[in-house]
Amino acid sequence: MHEHYRFMIQAIRLAEMAAKEDEVPVGAIVVKNGNIIGKGFNQIEQLQDPIAHAEIIAITAAADYTGQKHLSECTLYVTLEPCAMCSGAIVLSRIDRVVFGALDPKSGGCGSIFNIVQNQNLNHRVELIQGVMELECEELLTRYFTSKR
Length: 149
Known about the structure:
alpha/beta
């Protein structure tokens, strides 16, 4: 569990960078063999790209790093439960495990609304670990959305 906290702290730092760019504060990293091989934070507003979610950016960076489309033996750490789109990308990339902080009761694709990453009808299923540094991740989101009101 200690390793999960260590990497979630890195994802939180990326989420804080997103907040500084006036993006919804979500950060994500991909880890393989204890090394970060991909990272990202939300850049939807900056890039005017509806799919520039932290997870997509981190997965793309990891695939570029490895030169492989499949990221087996990798763990994705993300501050907010991935949405349906990101959950689909997780399945397609064959990531083994997702560790996330805060639940997303409005669009969560890893258990809150859908559970895409563990759907028995798909050809790949992902181990889920939720609630790592949940309060810290929720606080980032609360602070951001409070400032918008």
